[in-house]
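Is it possible to get an amino acid sequence alongside its tokenized fold?
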Amino acid sequence: MAQAIFAGGCFWCTEAVFRDVIGVSEVESGYIGGTMPNPTYKAVCSGNTGHAEAIRITFDAQQLSYGDLADIFMVTHDPSQLNRQGNDVGTQYRSAIFPLDDEQREGAGAAIERWNADHPGQVAVTTIEGPAEWYPAEDYHQDYWADEGQRNPYCLAVIPPKLQKLRKSFADRVKA
């Protein structure tokens, strides 16, 4: 099994997308890229820790490549928005990729280039960061869409369009 870390706005929303991808066995919400040890949700939301809300994906590299994951990430959020996703504003909502080795760093750069080539007139502001320490988010953030999110108006407005993008652009990668 391999892992990948992406930050693309609210971790509830990115987690929901990747839970539906064939080859993904686990998605964990957390914090990465900041200076405060053991950050809390409240601290990260303040925008003062430097962390991004992110997800750590565990996947089977025999079923799904890192490049595939990076492409799904780029398509299912708006990588052209600096330090925001929709109404979520601040560096904690930045678009960033945290490669775990040199091969992933190259794959991240290639995914950004592919997105830019496919979107003339737009430029991805997605950063490639790290290495950085991963901190799991509090338990109540894990698998939020399945547990609480479908009763949360914010999630109901944001997550279904992301899932539609996944199904439209990557139909062969979606779990039944």
About this structure: The CA atoms of residues 15 and 143 lie 7 Å apart. The chain is about 35% helix and 20% strand. The chain has a mean pLDDT of 96. The chain has one domain: 2-173.
